[in-house]
Amino acid sequence: MTDNCPNCPRQDVAPVAEHTRGQHISHLYQCPACGHVWSTNRDLGAYGQEAA
Ligand SMILES: [Zn+2]
User: Residue 6 in 3-state DSSP?
Assistant: First the structure.
């Protein structure tokens, strides 16, 4: 799942790492254009997956 760089106009940045914890998934991104690093956290429930 790609994201847009919050620091420059670069779009569709691919995640460099992915971590799942319980119902939450986090992605780590590094912009190839400006080098900015950021992460996102999403709730798996929002994507229709049921908790174990
Ligand atoms: Zn950037």
Answer: coil
Q: Which domain holds residue 42?
A: 15-47
Residues bordering ligand 1, an ion, CB closer than 5 Å: 5, 7-8, 10, 31, 33-34, 36
pLDDT in tens, 21-52: 999 999 999 999 999 999 999 998 765 555 44
Answer yes or no: is 2 within a domain: no
Q: Quote the number of domains for the chain.
A: 1
* pTM for the predicted model, two decimal places: 0.78
